Hints:
Elements: H1 3-6, H2 18-31, H3 34-46, H4 48-60, H5 62-70, H6 72-80, H7 90-101, H8 107-130, H9 136-166, E1 168-171, E2 180-183, H10 185-188, E3 198-204, E4 208-211, H11 224-240, E5 251-252, E6 265-267, H12 268-278, H13 281-287, E7 291-295, H14 300-313, H15 322-339, H16 353-367, H17 379-385, H18 396-418, H19 429-438, H20 444-465, H21 477-489, H22 505-516, H23 519-522, H24 526-544, H25 549-563, H26 567-575, H27 577-589, H28 591-599, H29 610-613, H30 619-630, H31 638-662, H32 667-697, E8 711-715, H33 716-719, E9 729-735, H34 755-771, E10 773-774, E11 777-778, E12 782-783, E13 796-798, H35 799-808, H36 812-819, E14 822-825, H37 828-842, H38 848-866, H39 870-874, E15 877-879, H40 887-901, H41 914-924, H42 929-951, E16 957-959, H43 964-978
Parallel strand pairs: 3-5, 3-6, 9-12, 9-13
Antiparallel strand pairs: 1-4, 2-3, 2-7, 8-9, 8-14, 10-11, 15-16
Helix pairs in contact: 2-5, 3-4, 4-19, 5-6, 7-9, 8-9, 9-11, 12-14, 13-14, 16-20, 17-18, 18-20, 19-20, 21-24, 22-25, 24-26, 24-27, 25-27, 25-28, 26-27, 27-28, 30-32, 31-32, 32-34, 35-37, 36-40, 38-40, 40-41, 41-42, 42-43
Amino acid sequence: MPANFDSIFEIASHPSLNDCLHKYKDKFDDKLTQDQREKLLGILDDEPTIASQFQRVLIGSDYAANYLADHPDVIFGILADERVEKNLSLKDFQHKFEEFIGNELDEEVWFKKLRIFRHLMTIRSIWRDLNRLADTVEITRELSYFAEAVIEKALQYNYDRATAEFGIPRNKAGEQQAMLVIAMGKLGAWELNLSSDIDLIFCYPQDGETDITDCEKATKKLTNQEFFIRVGQRFIKMLDAQTADGFVFRVDMRLRPYGQSGALVSQFDSLEVYYHAQGREWERFAMVKARVVANTGEPALVDKLMHLLNEFTYRRYVDFSAIEALRQMKLMIQREEVRRGLSENVKLGPGGIREVEFIAQAFQVIRGGKDIELQNRRLIGTLNTLPKLGCIPQGADEQLIKAYCFLRDTEHAIQAYRDRQTQQLPTDELARLRLAISMGFASWEAFYTKLKHYRDQVNQHFNAVISTPEHENGEDADVLADWQHVWQAREWRSDLMEGRTISDPDVFQQALTSLWEKPQLIAADKLSKERLDQLMPRLLSLIEKTQAPGATFSRLLDLITAIARRSAYIVLLIENPNALKQLVKLSEASPWVAIQLAEHPALLDELLDATSLYSVPTRDQLENELRQQLMRIPNTDIEALMEGLRYFRSAHAMQVAACEISGALPLMKVSDYLTQIAEVILDYVLNLAWEQMVERHGYPDKFETTEPQLLIVGYGKLGGIELGHGSDLDLVFVHNSSSQGMTSGDFEGKRAIENDVFFARLGQKIIHILNTKTLSGQLYEVDMRLRPSGSSGLLVSRVASFEKYQRENAWTWEHQALLRARAIVGPQPISEAFDEIRLKVLTRERERDKLVQEVREMRKKMRDHLGSSERERAAGQFHLKQDAGGIVDIEFMVQYIALAWAHRYPALIHYTDNIRILGCVAESGLLETQKVTQLIEAYKAFRSMGHRLALQHKSGVVDGALFASERDAVKQLWSELLGETNA
Length: 983
């Protein structure tokens, strides 16, 4: 082809790009017809600037280059469009979309045309952006207009089709009800990026049901919520589903009330109740950008809804209560940067886009109710307002805006490359060069220098806005200098240790020598070694102050080794002296803590805030935190979700251990909290597994519901609210779907399966998520052997089958286990059915002699198999749990009393934990109060020691003399109740 076309694929100044560009040339040569070639040449001859624009697109975007080569007509569409250099309004996009889609009603055609339209508009934006035909604000605004036009038309299409199929949704007064779509995040602020997902919330005004009077297709009425859920599901599928033509938008609904476990569509009143009763601070931050982008009803509905949301978002006073929440959010950002390796991420890394957004949102939430001008969804408008209100220094807004625009342009260039939702800077040299050229720089080094300049400015302003109180290091310069000499000697020198107060010097010497010889430290790079040289004197000076420095140091060796090449963690400890103090304090008190930190160094983040470390959140706060941590991970990325769940559990296990070590939590509260952690995780996992199964196979019994129709029952320590560190979970799964039913997959283009198969796979998926060992270990070890018929039984039982088994086939020991069983998560009707079965089974009258015999026999089997060995007994040792007079004896006595007398005293089986059951025993008069008190005190003492031993990473075997009186009291009562000496 002529030279002026060939020149597009040659860059003299960057020969390394030419191989890449030649690949595109070959593709164009193959695809272009003779007529198309001549037409393109004519355009290039008439418009010399087009050639350079074309070249910039080829350099900057693999995605655009390949699409244009495969669809040459798109080139002519862009070049012939006189408005490619002009900004389009929302109406322009609406008109373009209407012209493109036409009067088409067929759903398949809609799917295809939507995706093609998305490609056309995306490439148009890439062309404009890479050639700087529009600035950052204009590009993001147009992308938002495009999304809004598509959302509006797609919603109306699916709403109209649903009314034709199911009838018109009306309230009790007979008024037709509309569906509204709230856009959150960047779309809400008209700041969408090239490859962004869209965060949405669906809602409708009032409850009611569909009017099927004039609807020939409808066979029964739906509630308004059922109707709008169907519309929402179809709408999401229309935009989100991946087809041969790609997708339109990734739709994220996790910002809705209650997240993924909440209803897909909410009624106005429900929204108001949720946000004013349960809304979190982070939801106020998210709501700053919220706006309605689609509405199938009257415009007045938008004003009503936004008034409701603004009442939640903005306080009528300067909201200083939000300051601590802001600090916590900053802490979460810093932790995420370290944990996920986001230092080279232009959005999430230090000095990135999110920090700019956070600066604006911080002042909006704190002062937006009083200073109305801060109620501005657009970031740049808010930044311009901040100096006027004295929130940031004069000129800081200009710096932040310039930095923000540069960062957003960089983000777009990264995403334009391959149309992927990423903000991570490339590591490949060619990709780096292409990015730099797209940003107007001759080299990666020149671009990166400018990027670093802007990020440093942003990070400086960010840290200034959300400053935290400075902590005194308490570091003596002379002491640090002395320890610096010891550390850098790299060999043991007694003269350097003179005057040291080391109670176990031999152990300390061995630990220090061992650390010097670690291959990981020897092979560490220069930067890591320099940072270790900064850290170790500080660490050694703190270790010296412990009661057993050598033992404490030995416990920390694995952690130091683990972070030797991960300098981010070393810096964390250097720059946060209080975190370093907590590390030494907790490791001195508990080898278990040191082991957890060595295995999962990311948990060092949890030491940053001593206030939260030594206090525990409520159940609601736990749920909210888990939702925040996982909400940005797609539900399809099961591995990332599993890692997130494991971190959440480990972090809170660390927190409760710290509270237990410090005495901030008594034994019973420790178990309560560990149990709550498990319950919150089970709730999340159940919802996650349910969503994935429904997505693949539809709903069991063809009944659409957002609530999983499976009950998880906890037995043992989980059921008894007595979980300890490292406890496994004894679970039983129960459902109530019909035995002959099928899922609704065949109506939804999915593969329908039998209900029983559905629930069996659902149970397997739950166990897989909990049980699988990942890089972060196991979430929980799950034991399902207490289900009907044990390991040979079905994984998931129907309610009726569960009842029949418990009534006719269960052994006495299974009823003992049932006493400690309770519903953990699942639908209320099944939970109530389980409670009724449990009540009937446990309160039936039993033959006392037979019960005594069976309890004795089961206890003997357990003691013989699980108690102390002969050698341990000969040495006078005592197994806290399994030996005579121990925990299990107390549990068996409690279970015997409950099973023997519950037919007369039903209160005995109301609770599932031993302490409260014993309280009921005392109230019923079945045992003297003094004897009940003895059992309770012995039980608490044994369990408390068990917890301490677990934190010391020791077994539950102790010197028998420690609890001689408690054991004697337990054995004496066993003899009285069960007529034998439990020796």
